[in-house]
Amino acid sequence: MQRRPAVTRISHAVAGELERRILEGSLKPGDRLSSERDLAVELGVSRPSLREAIQTLVAKGLLATRHGGGTYVTDRLEAPFVDPWQDMLSGHPMLQSDLLEFRHMLESQAARLAAERATDADIERLDSAYAALEKVYASNEMMACIDIDVAFHQAIAEAAHNVLIGHLTASLFRVIHGHITTNLEHLYARPQRWGQLQSQHRAIWQAIREHKPEAAAAAARTHIEFVQRSMVESEREEQRRQSARRRLGEAAI
User: Fold this and answer.
1) In this prediction, what percent of the chain has a pLDDT beyond 90?
2) pLDDT tens digit string along 15-35?
3) Which of 49, 65, 64 lies closest to 16 in space, CA to CA?
4) Which of 9, 12, 118, 166 has a Cα-to-Cα distance from 18 of 20 to 30 A?
5) Which of 121, 141, 135, 143 is nearest to 201 (CA)?
6) Helices marked H in the chain
7) Inter-residue contact 111 to 211 (CB < 8 Å)
């Protein structure tokens, strides 16, 4: 006797669709799902099937429901990487150079793949991210620049259309957020260096939107190497300041 083909439960198909959106970054950590009614209409399923799908992803830890407050995407895919490395980085500063080496590999490949694979929608998003970056450069709003800088690089990572690159980039920026802040403050205080940073971002953006993989990878490498040198310089300056303060304290005794 021939076996009858297995019938996929509607709720499983819906769970798979929501999971795909989380993986690709369409749904990000902290995002709230649309209302049950709207989401059921969008997906073309019944509300009971949608509820079952959501419960499946809640059990996996990808979604979390809040009583009377909706359903949200968790950071399950990022937290296991971020939490221990943040603790290790604070206790072992020498890991910073290793993380920058990893960022060097990750971002150059992301830029290369983005130049090869970016769709019109990706380019539109990247243009928007770059326009926001240019605007904040012109406004000299230092603190706003940090988040927009990260958003620009994340847009590149997601335009690479590689799930791991997208999530690893997001995780890495969470780990080194404090170091990004310190480095941008260091560059901001030096107009010539600040101008170099702007030029590097422009080169990456142009190479990707013109679909030039090698140029995009090279521009990303140049950018990270510049960041590495800047962070070393910043650390040395801080060491000199601390040394000078100690000497001042000793002279006052």
Assistant:
1) 53
2) 999 999 998 888 998 999 999
3) 49
4) 118
5) 135
6) 10-24, 36-43, 47-60, 79-91, 95-117, 120-139, 142-159, 163-175, 177-188, 191-209, 213-252
7) no
Considering the segment(s) 79-252 as one domain, its CATH architecture is Up-down Bundle (1.20)
Q: Is the pLDDT of residue 212 over 70?
A: yes
Q: Using one digit for the tens of pLDDT, what is the confidence trace for 95-145?
A: 777 888 888 899 999 999 999 999 999 999 999 999 999 998 888 777 788
For residue 187, give the amino acid letter: L
Q: Note the pLDDT tens digit of each residue in 164-197.
A: 999 999 988 888 777 778 778 878 888 888 889 9
What would the mean pLDDT of 71-78 be, rounded to a whole number? 89
Report the C-alpha gap between 251 and 253 in whole angstroms: 5
DSSP code for 27: S
How many CA atoms lie within 13 Å of 182's alpha carbon, on the beta-carbon side? 15
Q: Which amino acid is at 73?
A: V
CB 66 within 8 A of CB 33: no
Instruction: Answer yes or no: are the C-beta atoms of 165 and 106 closer than 8 Å.
Output: yes
Q: Are 118 and 159 in contact (CB under 8 A)?
A: yes
Estimate the crossing angle of helix 163-175 against helix 177-188, to 10 degrees: 70
Q: Quick check: 61 and 76 in contact, CB under 8 A? A: yes
What are the domain boundaries of the chain? 10-73, 79-252
CB-CB contact of 160 with 110 (8 Å) = yes
Amino acid at site 61: G
10-73, CATH topology level: Arc Repressor Mutant, subunit A (1.10.10)
